[in-house]
């Protein structure tokens, strides 16, 4: 069975402001090395799936940057959504295009802006999940063993064993829970729940059948678009399809309501880099626990993240800070307040004088 990967790359880029912006979100940034997060994502999967079978689903404002960063992908594999309609529409669009190319294919849906510490283990987990998806009409999700009772994560409850696939045991996924409170999160960890990173695999005909059953309001327009693929009206049918479809997530629209969902517990050093605090925790550090990029000179500076722009940054006698200089905006906060960047961005968006900074 031919395998494809669809990478969702339409994020708005607010949680790592001011470096990440709506016009240049975090997947386009080299946060953990010389390669951007989307480049690192493609690098991780190419040993399993060749570039001609990797699709990137994005929006018009990011398309040119993605083509420039990913010259190894065929230009037609950068799929541009006319407007944002959520992850369900993006996944459905990818599945429709893949089904047109190969109706018997299987596919993985991944995110462009995550980080993985152990790419080889990731590929082994992905290969096991492909094998499970190809064995029957399972909807498969990789489940991440949690490292903390994080309240910003989605969790999934692990059910009975299904069997071993390429050396990894698969289980039924019993239920999904979004962003629990701290007490619930601690209980979930104790009970063996997994984080849900949004990495899904299935045969394309299976997921399109689930769209037909659970999201008919999306399946109809996508089917009309599918029939127009390869014709002169393809682009206009795509715009029409997106005008007709509601906003929905693949998690709620399909995964939480489907009947035959499986998971493979995995541990490959995954994080979605949801805040500057998380980047400080996971990035390589110097002897004083600092994470720095750009021209920085520090005296008695400890456990501090410094991301500089064109000008040098100097720090003296500071500890436990986040300092991000984007040239036109400077952020300074404590790591334990980094989640509030979203609150700041919302305030900037509502300010006509500063909305251009977002």
Arithmetic mean of pLDDT: 95
How big is the Rg? 21 Å
Uncertain ranges: none
Strand percentage? 15-25%
What level of helicity do the residues show?
25-40%
Largest sheet: 10 strands, mixed
Number of separate strands: 18
- CATH homologous superfamily title of the largest domain: Spore Coat Polysaccharide Biosynthesis Protein SpsA, Chain A
| Architecture (CATH level 2) name of the largest domain | Alpha-Beta Complex
Neighbour order of strands in the largest sheet: 3-2-1-4-10-6-11-8-7-9
Indicate the CATH class of the largest domain: Alpha Beta
Query: By helix and strand content, what is the structural category?
Result: alpha/beta
Oligomer: single chain
Number of helices: 11
> Could you please say which CATH topology of the largest domain applies here?
Spore Coat Polysaccharide Biosynthesis Protein SpsA, Chain A
